[in-house]
Design a protein that fits this description.
single chain; 481 residues; alpha+beta; Rossmann fold; Dna Ligase, domain 1; D-amino Acid Aminotransferase, Chain A, domain 1; 5-stranded parallel β-sheet; 15 helices; 20 strands; globular
C-alpha cells in the first residue's frame, strides 16, 4: 500500500515563469499547498494564478530575490514552509542553498546536498564518474591552474580541445581551441567569463569530440534505493552551446536497443553510486562512432523534461515531490516503464531568429491554434515584459506523434498556429528547422546551426494573407467551428 506523506505540505516554489506554473500544477494535483513568489517587477506573474498562496519576495534584481538565500530562508520560517522546489536555474544546483534548507528542517525537493555538491562541480563529477567506471572524455581530471598546464594536456590528448568552466552551465565558459595559439588566446578569457558568471574561474581541458551528439538520460530515484531511467533525449540542436530543439528518443541511437540500454544503464549506475534520491539528468557526449562519454549530471529537473513525460506517461515533477517527502513512487520496477511514440520540444525564446541574440520586449497578445495533442508550457500573458535579467525563453512547444514523422508534422502545424505579438521570437527559425532535410532525416550533430545554417533561410516578413488566415482560424476555433 502506497503512503501519502506529501498531502497538505506547504511547498514554496522558488522560481518564476513556466517552470513555476508547472510545479504549482503538480503541487495541487498532490494536494499540497502551492506557494508562489512575486518580486517588485513581477506583480502579475502567470504562475500565481495556479498557486494557492502568494509571497512577496521584495527586491528587483536577482541578487535581491531569487539568489538571496537568507531572505528565502526567512520567508520559509515566516510562512511555515515544509518544502522548497527550486525549478531549474537560480539556486537549483546550489549546495549552500540545499544544505541550508536541510539543516533548518525544510525539505529540499531535489537530491541530497552531497549529490548536489559532487555532481555540481564538473571536475569532481568527472573524477567520480571515472572512479565508478563510466567513460569520461579524455582530458584533465581536475581544474587546470595555468595556461602552461593546459598546453601540456592539449598536446597529450591532441587537438581540438575544449576549455570549459568547472562550474559552468547554459553554454557559458566554453571555448573550442584548434591549436596552441588558441589555448593561449582563450585561457584567461574563458576564466574571466566563468568567474563573472559562476564566481568560479577554474577551467577544465577536454578532448573536443568532432560532430558530437548531445545525449542525456532522465533518471528518477526515491529514498529507498530505487533508481529508474526514463530513456534518453537527443539535445544536439544548439546555439552557443544552449539547446533549442530536443527530442525523445534519439534519432541517432535509433533502433540500436543494445546501445540504448548501455547508455541508460550507465546513467543508473552513476546515480546509484552517489545514492541519488530525486529527478536528475546524466548528460553524455556521443561521437560519430557511437562511443559515449560522461559530460555532467544536472541535479535538478531539466527544461526539456516534458518530452520524456510524453513518451513515458510519467509526471516527473509529481514524482520528484513525492520522492522528497519519502512517498512511494508507485513504480514496481524498471521493466514497468515503457516508451511509446516520439516527442519533440521547441524552446520558444524572445530572440532574433537570425542572429539568435536576445530580443527583450513586451507581449501585447498571444493566440494559439494548435492541432490535437500539442502541449504548450508557457508563461505568456498580455503585458509580460521580457527583460535581459532573465533567460529569454518564454515557452516550450511540445508535439508527440506515434512515430517521428508524425511528431515533426504536428510541430510544423503547431508553429504555424502560434502567434505572439509584441515580441521578436525564434518561431521562424524553428519553422525552417522542422522543414530542413537533415533534421527531417534525423541526421544532425551539435554542429547543426554552424554547418547547416538554418538561420540564413529565415524569412521574417509575414505575408498579410497569412496573418488573416491565422486570425480567422483562431476566431473559428473560439466559435466552435
Amino acid at each position: 500500500m502506497s503512503t501519502n506523506k506529501t498531502k497538505g505540505k506547504r511547498i514554496l516554489i522558488m522560481n518564476r515563469g513556466e517552470i513555476a506554473l508547472r510545479v504549482a500544477k503538480a503541487c495541487r494535483e498532490l494536494g499540497c499547498v502551492a506557494v508562489g513568489v512575486f518580486t517588485d517587477n513581477e506583480m502579475q506573474a502567470k504562475h500565481l494564478e495556479v498557486c494557492d498562496e502568494w509571497i512577496h519576495l521584495s527586491g528587483s534584481s536577482n541578487a535581491e530575490t531569487y539568489l538571496n538565500i537568507p531572505k528565502i530562508l526567512d520567508l520559509c520560517k515566516k510562512y511555515k514552509i515544509d518544502g522548497v522546489h527550486p525549478g531549474y536555474g537560480f539556486l537549483s544546483e546550489n549546495t549552500e542553498f540545499s544544505d541550508t534548507l536541510v539543516k533548518n528542517g525544510i525539505t529540499w525537493i531535489g537530491p541530497h546536498p552531497e549529490a548536489v555538491r559532487v555532481m555540481g562541480d564538473k571536475a569532481v563529477s568527472k573524477q567520480f564518474a571515472e572512479k565508478v567506471g563510466i567513460p569520461v572524455v579524455p582530458g584533465s581530471t581536475g581544474a587546470v591552474p595555468t595556461v602552461e598546464e593546459a598546453l601540456k594536456i592539449a598536446d597529450k590528448i591532441k587537438y581540438p580541445v575544449l576549455l570549459k568552466a568547472v562550474a559552468g552551465g547554459g553554454g557559458r565558459g566554453m571555448r573550442v581551441c584548434h591549436n596552441a595559439d588558441d589555448v593561449r588566446a582563450n585561457f584567461e578569457a574563458v576564466g574571466r567569463e566563468a568567474a563573472s558568471a559562476f564566481k568560479n574561474g577554474d577551467l577544465l581541458v577536454e578532448k573536443y569530440i568532432v560532430n558530437p551528439h548531445h545525449i542525456e538520460v532522465q533518471i528518477l530515484a526515491d529514498k529507498k534505493g530505487n533508481v529508474f531511467h526514463f530513456f534518453e533525449r537527443e539535445c544536439s540542436i544548439q546555439r552557443r552551446h544552449q539547446k533549442i530543439v530536443e527530442e525523445a528518443p534519439s534519432p541517432f541511437i535509433g533502433d540500436d536497443e543494445e546501445l540504448r540500454q548501455r547508455v541508460c544503464n550507465s546513467a543508473v549506475k552513476l546515480a546509484k553510486a552517489i545514492n541519488y534520491d530525486s529527478a536528475g539528468t546524466v548528460e553524455l557526449i556521443m561521437g560519430e562512432d557511437k562511443e559515449f562519454y560522461f559530460l555532467e549530471m544536472n541535479t535538478r529537473i531539466q527544461v526539456e523534461h516534458p518530452i520524456t513525460e510524453e513518451i513515458t506517461g510519467i509526471d516527473l515533477i509529481v514524482c520528484m515531490i513525492q520522492s522528497a517527502f519519502g512517498d512511494d513512487l508507485g513504480i514496481p520496477g524498471q521493466e514497468w516503464i515503457k516508451r511509446t511514440g516520439h516527442a519533440i520540444e521547441c524552446r520558444i525564446c524572445a530572440e532574433d531568429p537570425i542572429t539568435m541574440l536576445p530580443a527583450p520586449g513586451t507581449v501585447t497578445g498571444c493566440e494559439t491554434n494548435f492541432p490535437q495533442g500539442i502541449r504548450f508550457d508557457n508563461c505568456l500573458y498580455k503585458g509580460l515584459q521580457v527583460t535581459p535579467d532573465f533567460d529569454p525563453m518564454v515557452g516550450k512547444l511540445i508535439a508527440k506523434g506515434i512515430i517521428r514523422d508524425v511528431a515533426v508534422r504536428k510541430m510544423r502545424a503547431a508553429l504555424d498556429g502560434l502567434l505572439i505579438e509584441g515580441l521578436k521570437t525564434n518561431v521562424p527559425l524553428h519553422k525552417v528547422i522542422m522543414n530542413e532535410e537533415n533534421f527531417i532525416a534525423g541526421k544532425y550533430s551539435t554542429n547543426y546551426i554552424s554547418t547547416v545554417k538554418p538561420q540564413e533561410r529565415v524569412n521574417t516578413e509575414m505575408d498579410f494573407n497569412d496573418i488573416c488566415k491565422k486570425i480567422a482560424g483562431i476566431e473559428a476555433r473560439r466559435m466552435g467551428l
